[in-house]
Amino acid sequence: QLQLVESGGGLVQPGGSLTLSCAASGFTLDYYTVGWFRQAPGKEREGVSCISSITNYADSVKGRFTISRDNAKKTVILQMNSLKSEDTAVYYCAAYWRPSPGFCTFTRERYTFWGQGAEVSVSS
Predict the structure, then answer these.
(1) Helix (H, G, I), strand (E, B) or coil at 86
(2) Which helix (H) or strand (E) holds 34?
(3) CA dist., res. 10 & res. 91, Å (int)
(4) Is 116 left (phi over 0), alpha (psi -120 to 50) or beta?
(5) Contacts from 21-24 at CB under 8 Å and sequence distance 24+?
(6) CA dihedral 56, 58, 63, 65 (to 10 degrees)
(7) Which member of 4, 19, 54, 60 has the greatest number of CB atoms within 10 A?
């Protein structure tokens, strides 16, 4: 069964850091574009960051979040620093097949696989 699994969510104080991981089950992420999305209560799901041959970030997280591939562990990492209360949401990783280099998109309809989500809560 092909699926994505997120890990690393939790509760953190404002200004703190968390690391989210996205792992694939049943396939590898080598030729996939991977995106991180989040959905806060009462809001639409929004793109946070994505990685193909380059990376892309939402303006709200630029300079604070970093997306990367851990090839040894075959995962995609979202390092979140300087967290704010407005970062509180359920975070989802998603992927779509893209064997050639290029930009990645935050268009949700492009993504074929989705994880179940990981809760991130930023509160004092």
Answers:
(1) helix
(2) strand 32-39
(3) 11
(4) alpha
(5) 21/70, 21/73, 21/75, 21/76, 21/77, 21/78, 22/75, 22/76, 22/77, 22/78, 22/93, 22/95, 22/115, 23/73, 23/74, 23/75, 24/74, 24/95, 24/113
(6) -80
(7) 4
Which of 88, 119, 92 lies closest to 22, judged by CA? 92
DSSP SS3 for 110: helix
Report the alpha-carbon angle 105-110-97, nearest 5: 90
DSSP 108: G
Instruction: Please choose, from the candidates 23, 19, 45, 25, the residue with its C-alpha nearest in 3D space to the C-alpha of residue 34.
Output: 23
How far is 124 from 16, CA to CA, in rounded Å?
10
| pLDDT by position in tens, the chain (length 124) | 788 999 999 999 999 999 999 999 888 888 899 999 999 999 999 999 999 999 999 999 999 999 999 877 789 999 999 999 999 999 999 999 987 888 999 999 999 999 999 999 999 9
Task: Using the structure block, give the residue that is written with the tokens 């990685």.
Answer: 51
